[in-house]
Amino acid sequence: MKKDTFYLTTPIYYVNDLPHIGHAYTTIVADAIARHARLSGKDVYFLTGSDEHGQKIERAAQKQGLEPRQLVDRVVKRFQQLWKRLEISNDDFIRTTEPRHRKGVEDLFRAVKARGDIYLDRYRGWYCTGCESFYTVTQLVDGRCPEQGHPVEELEEESYFFRLSRYQDALLEHYQKHPEFVRPETRLNEAREFVRSGLRDLSISRTGFDWGIPVPGDDRHVLYVWFDALTNYMAAAGYGADPKRFGKLWPADLHLVGKDILRFHAVYWPAFLMSAGLPLPRTVFGHGWWLTAQGKMSKSKGKVVDPVPLIEQFGVDPLRYFLLREMTFGQDGAYSDEALIDRINSDLANDLGNLVQRTLAMVHSYLDGQVEPPDENVLPESASLGALARKSLGAYREHMDSYAFSVGLAALWDLVGGINRFLVKHEPWRKPDGKDDEARRAAVLGSAVEGLRWVALGIAASMPESAETLLELLGFPKKELQAGYDALEWGRWKEKPTRCKRAEALFPRIDKQAYFATPAAASTSGDRSPNSRRNSMDTVPDQITIQEFQRIKLRTAKITAAERVEGTDRLLKIEVDLGDGKRTIVSGIAEQYSADSLVGKMVVVVTNLKPARIRGVDSNGMLLAAGVGAEDRPIICTFEEEVPPGAPVR
Ligand code: MSP
Q1: Superfamily assignment of 546-636 in CATH?
Q2: If one looks up domain 333-499 in CATH, what number appears?
Q3: Could you report the per-residue pLDDT of 615-624, keeping only the tens digit for each?
Q4: Which residues line ligand 1 (CB under 6 A)?
């Protein structure tokens, strides 16, 4: 077969609501795979995007008094901004409201129709708008959708049908011949069972609402949102528009999806493609879910983990690392702030961070900051550290190739541990006994620096920014990463000696006790809105007493100065006057308010919030704001009449 491009996709996300950690997860995983493939020398095409049509979006817009178009335009920006912050290296972002997508969907519909696989009939059954999915009465559980327990509604309407039943045998045969088509194996079994139990033809159009792509030739109907959405993978690759590009990219190598949407990808999608005479994607990987102590995350029940405060609190790379390391890919995983902090402290701050700091400190104390590559004539044991580096990076690469990220990172950490043990064994801190011993000490540190150069390559897919920082700390240009894994040769440096930078904490330790002692609102007062401060998922009681409320000190304050916190899009450093003194507050409202427009405004401030350090700035208090709309736009609280600063608010 053709194709040397590695084409991978994430699901396209519904933009009825803001992204949460589940969405961030799939996208970070996809990004790590894409970066790893590039580092392995592959030509990668990485697609993500947004699913913007359907009843779910239409209803969400109605609820907010918006046109669907307005809602999706707003919310899609939040996804795109989040991907930027999370260092997602996608090559393309497709929106299903784009003309290129619509053309792809229309072409696929025509191709399937030309095969004789479309007919008009009446649909009678149940519909779940939450999952955008049809169910028979026997599939319902307690009158709700069997997947997520969403409410369902009864439908009876004219509909175009796709002859899914025709593809039962062909699908089973495909699973048989290509077991790698659905991974992991348990999900292949699920798909196989579903198909074996009998396929009914699939309703692929709806009437009664407009927000979708009209059925070609019959605009009384809009195409079923899943028929529409799945086609994004081909439309972005040039289907129906650019045959050369399409030939280069299609079929996709990997569709990453959550287990809840496996059926659409492992059953319906290949059937549509078979019908249209198109090659099938190589692999659909169905991953598990992040669960919280209360079970499944659910927006409607207010039980979602918001990645934004986590990024602000812990940084992008530690969050990426945690998500990849903590979950066995394919299975469910438990999310908690505690697990995140533990993982950061043990693997990043203690193991890797300390090692880097110690090594650099010694390079400066003993070698004046300058290191030569390890010389095996001086220190033969350097070769065994080199062997460990090759073994551990090799194992890491193999596991990453088979999407076992957690095992892969654990294998890489064998090298981190190995370098630590190497230092303990060779004691570079021991006072050298003569010239030879001095050379030996230089070779010990040279070996440690070399080992860390290999670690930098190893973390480049999961923690791209830290990989660059690490290389630069060691004195190597960060562009060395672009040369990929195969350019690594133990002890072979393009330029030598390197000049190491001064030791700095690559991954600061999180004070867990202080974190959990902080009132929920304090830790991320730079967060996007007043109601999504922290993700500890503490149960907020429905009612509190007046005494409990009185513990929160609210006062009026006048904004006297404001400026953007460096390196952030959303954070402002605001100086407020409380009448009896000034203080600084960091607030996540920069997308809504320019710094200048705030000066002079009278606002409400929580004054007895524990101070928090946010992006290097000490924040003393929190500014109150409403969180408006699906994108949680912050609108600050001000006063109807003039009030002096410092007045109590109660
Ligand atoms: N729009 C469809 C996908 C169409 S693809 C042609 C959709 N969108 S979604 O926004 O609801 O979900 C997108 C992805 O997020 C799914 O793969 C889903 O499994 C994943 N997650 C949602 N919550 C999740 C967790 N709690 N944990 C991990 N991933 C989860 O479905």
Answers
A1: Nucleic acid-binding proteins (2.40.50.140)
A2: 1.10.730.10
A3: 778 888 889 9
A4: 11-14, 22-23, 25-26, 51, 229-230, 232, 257-258, 260-261, 289-290, 297
